[in-house]
From TrEMBL:
Location of the Alanine racemase N-terminal domain: 34-258
GO MF term (any one): pyridoxal phosphate binding
Function: Pyridoxal 5'-phosphate (PLP)-binding protein, which is involved in PLP homeostasis.
Residues bearing the modification N6-(pyridoxal phosphate)lysine: K62
Needed cofactors: pyridoxal 5'-phosphate
Protein name, per record: Pyridoxal phosphate homeostasis protein
Keyword Signal carried by entry: no
Matching Pfam families: Ala_racemase_N
Amino acid sequence: MTNDIYGPFPGGADFSAALTEGQRARYEQLGANLDVVERRIADACAAAGRPREEVTLIVVTKTYPAEDTALLAGLGVTDVAENRDQDAAPKAERCVELPLTWHFVGQLQTNKARSVVRYSDVVHSVDRARLVDSLAAAVRAAERPPLGCLVQVALDKEAGEGEHRAGVAPAEVLALAGRIADTPGLRLDGVMTVAPLAGPLAGDPARAFARLAEIASDVRAAHPAATMVSAGMSGDLEQAIAAGATHVRVGTAVLGVRSPLG
């Protein structure tokens, strides 16, 4: 099998052999970065008494080119994330043959729902009823399998902060989760958060993720299949894993801080 980015299909025996010198250098750089992140995840799981298999690494490829996504697939990455539809849609189209699960993690406008459901397997940023309705309508129009949805939790809103930030207040999570679960075409998978920048939990990701774990437990009590907890990024994945995160979203620690292409 081949693809239109590098020719040989990532993961095949002839993939790395077909890379140019520059491509190979990037491939090796990404591989080294992945090794470091994998060690961090494994160590965090061990410290928390959890099997490594309980945590999925999602590599956030936003602002980086499709070529990097293909290299990551060649290195065994199975899950990638994007946060802007205008960048993600063409990238996903170029990578359509790769064995990847695509996550959308950015704030999502309702008028982008039709495009996002064409390539996303899971949307992490569901935070309002109107978006639930737009995603469901887009799924029906696309005649695709159910779309995984996470309720984005804005922990700072619990303290009256972050009024204009994306996400719902903790007190509103169960209602929105129920709406997703009751909507044909959508599948309630769990919850997501970003460590807050304001409020009493700001600067304390361990406490923030512990609070998310409480919310996730309440959601699971009402919806047992909603087991996904998306939390933790490059700087705080250890605290997220300690609190029970099932998926960590890592960008910089894998892709680096070089000037992005595309």
